[in-house]
Design brief:
Blueprint (H helix, E strand, L loop, with lengths): L13 H9 L15 E5 L2 H13 L4 E5 L12 E5 L7 H17 L4 E5 L12 H12 L4 E4 L7 E4 L2 E4 L2 E2 L18 H6 L5 E5 L1 H5 L2 H13 L2 E6 L4 H10 L5 E4 L28 E6 L4 H12 L4 E3 L10 H12 L8 E4 L4 H11 L1 H21 L2 E7 L1 H10 L4 E9 L2 E6 L7 E6 L8 H9 L1
Parallel strand pairs: 1-3, 1-4, 2-3, 4-11, 5-10, 5-11, 9-10, 12-14, 12-15, 13-14, 15-18
Antiparallel strand pairs: 2-16, 6-7, 7-8, 16-17, 17-18
């Protein structure tokens, strides 16, 4: 498949999107019947597939675009997820990209807009969740929206406005050590209020448990009190299904991917196996991991313990223009091993090691060096015949997808909650099966299980 030799300012062009869709047999250009219900804007690439996965599981046909297309949508789908890489960029740039995505989705006839962020709500006091939310509200002319990162299937629950990761508060889960967006406060009302000009309120678990009428009544009360954004409690999928109908007429939703399970029914859609069918898989297998989360650290350790080959990239080795040499060394190592099964290339490290590298290189430079190197490795692996690729980490996924010049993804079956296999068509008819795993998602055996699931 085609690749770009630069990661900077990459935006897939409309021609690539049209060609990719046309090469996929599930999209018959002669029988298009557009009926776009939901237009989604995701602030990173793993989050986009996470959202698309939940929509597909609930019966929606979904296509995910990488960046904002420059051509009209040419696919018979219920939802489009525009994947941006805007979570950690300056707020003004995140707003501009999100508004660009909004304009394109509106032009395609999207009936409702969904701004998707991470289920750990990770951000900084300056944004980008709050600023993007307010910009979208202004553009849509709405004075109220909801905010909830709840995703019970992955242990993310909201209770009395506090976000839990598993059985602990978010700020005790390891997210307090996130290298880019450390989360030291689990109170979402407080976190969101620090990022927004609008007043932030709460729709608590007692109201949600009473269903649609009670939720709508609470929304009306909050609006009367001047509240513009309401954090919503949800501790189970039942809560999300109760919430769904109350959101039917809301122009803008902001949430993690959990809320998505309650939305397709608003459009008369039901779960269908056909929604997740992908072309048959072929080719070699590999894993590229750049996340430093606790979950991914455990997944890397598990893969290595199974005896499969794994090679670590030391961020310090990439300094002083040595990145290309390191990439070539990695690819030379992987080439003879790929025929015997999946290999792992990773920069995953413990928080203390990450901080040491950041102190030496700077946070932004260290992250950019690693992302660029892993993206180059991914591009090289595909050129070696890898057609089944697992990528771990949000920033890493964004860099790899851009390096591979992937314009759109067809969403397939779920591996673990929030992580589906996807298929990126290509002009040669082979395409690449790829999964973009958020750092915090997946069981310890995820890397091995992913390939078993695909076959």
């Amino acid at each position: 498949m085609g690749v770009e030799h630069t990661l900077k300012n990459h935006r897939p062009r409309g021609g690539l999107l049209k060609n990719a869709i046309a090469s996929n047999k599930r999209f018959d250009m002669s029988t298009l019947k557009l009926g776009l219900k939901l237009g989604c804007i995701a602030d990173d690439f793993t989050g986009a597939t996470d959202l698309a996965n939940n929509l597909v599981r609930s019966g929606m046909r979904v296509v995910q675009t990488i960046g904002v297309p420059s051509a009209p949508l040419a696919a018979d789908v219920h939802a489009v997820v525009v994947a941006l890489k805007s979570r950690t960029i300056p707020a003004a740039e995140a707003i501009a990209q999100s508004l660009d995505a909004l304009k394109w989705l509106q032009a395609q006839g999207a009936e409702q807009i969904y701004f998707k962020y991470c289920s750990t709500f990770d951000s900084t006091p300056e944004g980008n969740i709050g600023p993007v939310t307010e910009a979208l509200m202004d553009a849509l002319g709405t004075d109220f929206t909801i905010a909830t990162p709840a995703f019970p299937d992955n242990g993310r629950t909201v209770f009395k406005g506090y976000l839990f990761a598993g059985n602990v508060l978010l700020n005790e889960s390891g997210m307090q050590n996130h290298p880019l967006t450390p989360m030291t406060d689990a109170n979402l009302v407080r976190v969101m209020q620090a990022q927004t000009q609008r007043k932030v309120g709460l729709i608590d678990y007692k109201t949600v448990a009473q269903g649609e009428a009670a939720i709508r009544e609470r929304i009306a009360t909050l609006r009367g009190e001047g509240v513009g954004v309401a954090v919503v409690d949800a501790t189970s999928n039942d809560d999300l299904h109760l919430l769904g109908p109350a959101l039917k007429d809301m122009p803008l939703l902001t949430a993690g991917s959990g809320v998505a399970i309650g939305l397709p029914a608003n459009f008369g859609l039901k779960p269908s196996l056909q929604a997740s069918q992908l072309p048959a898989a072929s080719g070699l297998q590999a894993v590229v991991s750049g996340s430093c989360s606790l979950a991914t650290n455990a997944q890397v350790a598990h893969f290595k313990n199974t005896g499969r080959p794994a090679m670590a990239i030391d961020p310090a080795s990439l300094m002083n223009g040595q990145s290309d040499a390191v990439v070539q060394q990695v690819l030379a190592w992987t080439a003879p091993l790929l025929q015997d099964g999946p290999v792992l290339v990773y920069s995953t490290a413990e928080p203390e090691a990450v901080k040491a590298v950041q102190a030496q290189l700077g946070v932004a430079e260290a992250g950019a060096l690693v992302e660029h190197a892993l993206a180059s490795v991914a591009r090289g692996l595909v050129s070696l015949g890898v057609r089944q690729l697992v990528v771990a980490g949000g920033e890493t996924s964004g860099a790899c997808v851009q390096a591979l010049a992937i314009a759109q993804l067809q969403i397939g079956p779920q591996i673990d909650p929030g992580v589906p296999w996807c298929h990126a068509p290509s002009g040669d008819g082979k395409g690449v099966h790829i999964t973009l795993k958020s750092g915090n998602f997946g069981t310890e055996d995820f890397f091995s299980k992913a390939f078993d699931t695909l076959h």
